[in-house]
Amino acid sequence: MRSYLDFEKPVAELEAKVEELRAMAETGSAVAVGDEINKLEVKAALALKELYADLTPWQKTQVARHPQRPHCLDTIAGLIGNFMPLAGDRKFGDDPAIVGGFGRFRGESVCVIGHEKGSDTESRLKHNFGMARPEGYRKAVRLMEMADRFGIPLITLVDTAGAYPGIGAEERGQAEAIARSTDACLGLGVPSIAVILGEGGSGGAIALATANRVLMLEHAIYSVISPEGAASILWRDTAKAQEAATNMKITAQDMVRFGVIDTVVVEPTGGAHRDPQAAIAATGEAIASALAELRGLSPDAVRNQRREKFLTMGRTMGRITG
Question: How, if at all, do strands 213-217 and 221-223 pair?
Fold first, then answer.
C-alpha cells in the first residue's frame, strides 16, 4: 500500500478516486468507467510531475526520509551479485546499522559498505535506524583495508541521519572511529564511489562518503546536521525545521552547485519510492559510469585525485545525469 506525504495530498485524492472506479469496474457495474479512469490517471500523473518539478528543501527532506524509499539492502539486492556480507570489527562486536561485504557489480568484484535504516519496525530497530556505533565504522575500516589489499574497488551507500549519539557509543570512541573511517577512505589506493541514497547526515555520512566520486539521488539531502537539529540550536524551536532546511542548502542541486558532490542521479517522477527498481537501475548506471572514469588509474593517481577533489571543494561544479 502506497504511503503519501503531506504535500502529496492532491495526488493521493486523484489516485484514490482511480482505485474506487477500478473497484466499481471489477464488480461488474453497468457504469462505463474506463474513459474516466484514463482521464484521472492522466490528471494524477500531470499533478505528480508538476509537484515534483518544484519541491522545496523541506519537501525534499520528507521525500529523502520516505519509509518506502529504497535503502542500502534494496540497492545491494538490485545491483550486486553473489553478495557475501561480513560482520564484526574484530575489537568489540558487530553493528547492523552498517552492512558490508564483497560481491560482483556487472562482472567486476567490488566491496560494498552502507548504512541500512530498515524497512519496517522490526528491521529499523535491528539496524538502529541507520545510526552507526563505533564498531560499525571500525567494521567499515576493516573492509576498506581488505578491499585495498586485494585491489577491489569500493562502493559506499550512504543513508543516515548521523552517527548514534548514545553514551555507549561515546564511551567506545565514536568520534575517533568516524575519523579513522574518514582517514581510511582518503588513503585507499583503489577507486571509491559513494552514493547518497536518502539522508547524508553529519560525520556519520562523511565517514563513508569521502570518495573519488560522490553521487547523490535527486531528492536526497546532505548536511552537517538535520534541519530539526539546526532549528533547535539556532532558534530553540524544532518547529522551524522547514526554515532551517531552506537556509542550510541541503539538496542535491545545492550540493552539485557547490562542488560537494559530482553527480545528481535523476529519480523517477514522484521520487525513488514510486519506482524503486527504476531508481536502483539509474543508480547502477551512474556507478558504472563513475567507475569507468577511474578504471586503469594507478593507486597513487587514485589517491591524488581524491585528495585534490576535497582540497578544491567549493570551487568546482558537478553535473546532473539521467
Answer: unpaired
Inter-residue contact 18 to 40 (CB < 8 Å)? yes
In terms of C-beta density within 10 A (0-12 exposed, 13-18 middle, 19 or more buried), how is residue 300 classed?
exposed
Contact 180, 92 (CB under 8 A): no
* CATH top-level class of 61-321: alpha beta
**Torsion from C-alpha of 23, 28, 31, 36, nearest 10 degrees:** 40
133 close to 164: Cβ distance less than 8 angstroms: yes
Domain range list for the chain? 6-54, 61-321
DSSP state of 25: H
**Cell reading at 225:** 546536521
User: What is the CA angle 126-180-94, rounded to 5?
Assistant: 25
- Tell which phi-psi region holds residue 271, choosing left (phi > 0), alpha (psi between -120 and 50) or beta: left
- Rounded CA-CA distance 83/71 in Å is 16
The β-bridge relationship of strands 319-321 and 221-223 is unpaired
Q: What is the dihedral of CA 176, 116, 9, 221, to 10 degrees?
A: 40
* Entry pTM: 0.91
Give which of 307, 305, 270 is closest to 50, Cα–Cα: 270
Mean pLDDT by 10 residues, the chain (322 residues): 86 85 68 74 88 93 94 97 96 96 96 95 95 97 97 97 94 96 96 96 94 96 92 91 93 91 94 95 97 94 94 67 57
CA distance 131 to 307: 27
